[in-house]
Protein 1
Amino acid sequence: MATTSAALVVTSPGATFERSTIERRELRDHDVLIDIRYAGICHSDIHQVRDDWGGTTFPIVPGHEIVGEVAAVGPAVTRHAVGDRVGVGCFVDSCRECEPCKDGEDQYCLRGNVPTYNGRDYDGEITYGGYSQTIVVDENYVLRVPTSLSYEGAAPLLCAGITVYSPLRHWAAGPGKKVAVVGLGGLGHMAVKIAHALGAEVTVLSQTLSKQDEGRRLGADHYYATNDKATFKTLSGTFDLVINTVSANLPIDAYLGLLRLNGTMVNVGAPAEPSEFRVFSLFRGRRSLAGSSIGGIRETQEMLDFCAEHGLAADVEVIGADQVDEAYERVLRSDVRFRFVIDVATLASA
């Protein structure tokens, strides 16, 4: 039998959140029912709620940074048990048959993976995310949350953490490598922590020096302001890897100029408008401009274990269910250090 779950719902672009109920499917053989404890607020939640990228299906329940406890399992589940600490990230199914899926790169499923929210299951049912009390997910897409990680600190790892961990691993950030992180927000602060833990020399590139002390605390070796034109001259040809975490258009050519021979600039932020650059900026130094999308289930578990081993978690501000609209406005003003996390228990009393 399907169950109902309290949730925060937006019914149209620009509307505010309202409390409502949604249906969660009856447990299938391999399904896990999760009582959600905390759900992180990702910038992409804001884009989709406001239909910035187009294609949002309303009503929408956002949230793909989900942590909680297993409340029930289907009869064939072997990976998780009732009471386990678990998490759910950006997708809840994939075809499992294409080459990327078989290689553990299911985030790039050729059929298209099933987003945790604002998507459709392969049977056509709309998916609803973690701004809710429960969620039902196939066991193969449920992550184990190590006991050393707090629920609230772990929640943003399911998107922000894996979004930066994946390119840092793929482009071999580590000892002897110089990594620049553009932006010190939800994604950027985790990029600094993880790159530092991997052993890279880390530089933060932010508009101003206002967060310099925090950047150093997080593990940055250097900190430069991009509103100072001298920065781009000083750092010309310096970095092996530039991770761009901001969701706004940048002067891409200027940032490509920061790369050394064979360096790569990877974009993980997602501006609503197209970006522009000159191909000649790539010719100089055989530079590459790339993008990276979250990570697969296997790599996400690896990331969680890595963060637990190194004592890494997101810096968060915990809010109640009645504060989400305000939190969205604060995110857009960059007024958060560094990630909002909803205490889902407040849904019952908000």
Note: The mean pLDDT is 96.
Protein 2
Amino acid sequence: MKRARRVKATPKNQEWLLTLLPVFPLVLLVVRLWYASRQDTQTLLLLLQSISPLGLLSVALLTALWVLPALVLGGKVLGTLYWISARRSSWLVRAAERLPGWVVILAVAVGLFSWQLRFLPTLAMLALAAAGLTVRDRFPHREELRIAFCYALPAMAAILSYVALWPAIAAAVAAHDVATALLLTLPPGAAVLLTGPVPEVPARMLTHGIAVAIAVFAPFLVGVVVMRAPILPLTALQVSENGSPRVLVGYLVASDDQMFTVLGRDGGVSFVENGTLQSRVLCPDPGAVPRTSVNLHGWYVEQNVASWLAPTRPVQPVDPRCQGRSVKDPGAAPG
């Protein structure tokens, strides 16, 4: 069977699929606001009135930066692997064939800058597997190319990865961080196993089963990330009520010349008059607190290349007002 026969004609009258592209992010954004309002309709209307749509769309865009490379590389590897193993066409094979080479390269570049350090070995594994399978498919009679891209290159990349990542691997093992240790050690060695055919009988179940699982769980994973993404600045307001100070920690919804509108972390809305405000401080995002101390020469495993290379502010102690405690001299407090 020739390569041209693998890609069937594009089905007609499927323009309605294009309407789903903006629908899914919009649904996620509305659900995010519904979750932040604790299912209260009036609070939801207040958030819709005050929040900028551009800020909400930026959350979906940042999420897509690390989801799209996984979908592109996963589809390319699984579709090509099934074709090499079974020599039969399917929807997965046709999807992989419709992915141009420049799209795959662009997905690798985007993943390189947007994925965290602990996921970069997985990115390298998928990229090497896609390159090896493509060479095996397009140049079946070039033995030297197959040896170079399917065996030598993944083996050399695995050796270099283990040498470069060994300090982080040792730190993860010492910290009993099993997930990070597995993410840093398994993918480099598994790259060699993904560049060759698998037995024809389990090929369809293996490749299509993984593809269906990715298609089913990817929207849920994106939804979880969007649900936890901040949509408003987290602020601590110290107010004076009847001569006694009180700290209100929440998300700033709106402010004018009369009062501040704050959405508490419990979903309640508070209106603070400007005359009672003593101080105001911007608090760090709770989701930005690292969960592990494993790092590679100062590059923590939960950081991506962009955040590691970008200039950062010196780490400062957390303001006590962000922890709900009032201070006597607001001007002298850190933050």
Note: The beta strands are 234-241, 244-255, 259-264, 269-273, 277-282, 295-296, 299-300.
